């Protein structure tokens, strides 16, 4: 399905290009960003053993991932954490755009790395040594717009969400937007901040997943945030909600 990348590990600018048509909507399309050839091949084999997942491209650096993502339109981009060193946050934001989800395979428990990833819009953060079933389940969950976080990093997320804000204070327009949320939008926003999935929120409020997603989209637009992680951070930092 793909051209050979023999020696790609020693040539980080090389990427593999897709040689077949983009799969249909029944597949979750995955783009791999991994510079270790053996590990990348293992990821590809593992993912393509699943009947609903397909690898649509492979690259060895973030710049190539940004370029190829526009061509193969993946749902999920899987990136080794080490490849994000010295990469501008805007590049990660670009990968998180267009309804794509980024899954970082982390090699350390650095709180700073996790915080930066969350700010950039990343919704998936698993250990690089995660068990195979957890990895494929995580890819599917991200495709459903859910948060995927390795339990080993959960304490860092709690610290990040509850820490005193270090950035500029919210603008009057943002605070005013909080007050303009409907009662149902407030309820959904609070439940997102508690870490509940769309399915769990829908069951609690007796509404469909599509309705929950619509509320989250409307709230995020009104508050000027991107994704459920940034929404959760905003809510936790504003008790006025």
From TrEMBL:
Residues 12-21 have a biased composition (Polar residues). One of its GO terms (molecular function) is DNA binding. Residues 29-143 form the Response regulatory domain. Residues 1-21 are annotated as: Disordered. Pfam families: GerE. One of its GO terms (biological process) is regulation of DNA-templated transcription. SUPFAM superfamilies: C-terminal effector domain of the bipartite response regulators, CheY-like. Residues 174-239 form the HTH luxR-type domain. CDD domains: LuxR_C_like. Keywords: DNA-binding, Transcription, Transcription regulation. SMART domains: HTH_LUXR (SM00421). This is DNA-binding NarL/FixJ family response regulator. It comes from Glaciihabitans tibetensis. The lineage of its organism: Bacteria, Bacillati, Actinomycetota, Actinomycetes, Micrococcales.
């Amino acid at each position: 399905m793909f051209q050979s990348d023999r020696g790609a590990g020693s040539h980080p600018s090389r990427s593999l290009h897709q040689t077949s048509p983009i799969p249909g909507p029944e597949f979750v399309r995955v783009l791999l960003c991994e510079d270790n050839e053996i590990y990348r091949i293992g990821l590809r084999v593992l993912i393509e053993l699943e009947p609903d997942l397909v690898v649509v491209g492979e690259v060895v650096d973030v710049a190539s991932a940004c370029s190829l993502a526009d061509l193969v339109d993946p749902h999920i981009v899987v990136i080794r954490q080490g490849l994000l060193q010295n990469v501008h946050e805007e590049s990660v934001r670009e990968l998180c755009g267009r309804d794509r989800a980024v899954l970082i395979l982390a090699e350390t428990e650095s709180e700073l790395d996790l915080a930066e990833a969350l700010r950039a819009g990343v919704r998936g953060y698993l250990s690089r040594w995660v068990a195979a079933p957890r990895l494929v389940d995580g890819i599917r969950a991200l495709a459903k717009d859910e948060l995927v976080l390795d339990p080993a990093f959960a304490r860092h997320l709690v610290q990040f969400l509850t820490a005193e804000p270090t950035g500029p204070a919210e603008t009057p327009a943002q605070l005013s937007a909080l007050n303009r949320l409907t009662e149902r939008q407030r309820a959904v926003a609070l439940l997102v901040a508690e870490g509940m999935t769309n399915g769990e929120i829908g069951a609690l409020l007796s509404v469909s997943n599509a309705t929950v997603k619509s509320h989250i989209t409307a709230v995020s637009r009104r508050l000027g945030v991107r994704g459920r992680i940034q929404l959760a951070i905003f809510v936790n930092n504003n008790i006025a909600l």
